[in-house]
Fold this sequence. Notes:
The structure holds two protein chains of two kinds. Chain A is mostly beta strands. Chain A has strands at residues 4-6, 11-14, 19-25, 30-38, 45-50, 55-57, 60-65, 70-75, 84-92, 98-101, 105-110. In chain A, strands 2, 4, 5, 9, 10 and 11 form a six-stranded mixed β-sheet that branches. The termini of chain A are far apart. In chain B, the strands form two sheets. In chain B, strands 2, 4, 5, 6, 9, 10 and 11 form a seven-stranded mixed β-sheet that branches. Chain B has a four-stranded antiparallel β-sheet with strand order 1-3-8-7, with no helix packed on it. The A-B interface holds A 4, 31-32, 34, 41-46, 49, 87, 91, 93, 96-97, 99-104 and B 33, 35, 40-45, 48, 50, 56, 90, 98-108.
Amino acid sequence: RKEVEQDPGPFNVPEGATVAFNCTYSNSASQSFFWYRQDCRKEPKLLMSVYSSGNEDGRFTAQLNRASQYISLLIRDSKLSDSATYLCVVNTRTGGFKTIFGAGTRLFVKA
Amino acid sequence: DAEITQSPRHKITETGRQVTLACHQTWNHNNMFWYRQDLGHGLRLIHYSYGVQDTNKGEVSDGYSVSRSNTEDLPLTLESAASSQTSVYFCASSDGDRGADEQFFGPGTRLTVL
């Protein structure tokens, strides 16, 4: 089992739709969590950090469920410009440092 | 503006040659990282550094080496390039406690080993 798993998609949605991605992680000692966005052939860029209480940034909402060991990303009112790959990132601090990136979920938003 | 740069952006080399990829950041971040990204895999950590003279092996370090002689630079060297090292390489940096914070990525280097 991979340490961080994401549904690779692709998710094909129309503009204005709401779409949700989940990401599961295997290490219960994981401490910090992020969602990154990566456009085709570009570098990953931080979309948002994920806090235990959940957090929102405009149309984007991230949540953490420690009991079930997953994080989620909800995108409301999808825009064409949201088309990208979304990477789940988990930091674990047991012994040495460890940052694990999920393989990503591809999203296509269509007009 | 502070930034992180990589050079070259594209490189074609032959099997067995030594190759060095440069990474330079102007944020004064203590932590720097090298990843490779291949289809079907997420970003995989090659080497990382928490500060000057500090280097550590990541998940896929075989065949790669790094050195950290100053805060700004973490060059990645492929001692004897192999076709399996054809990939896109990303450098990243972060502030804070030994990698707990968000990472900022360079634009990537696309390496082809023939």
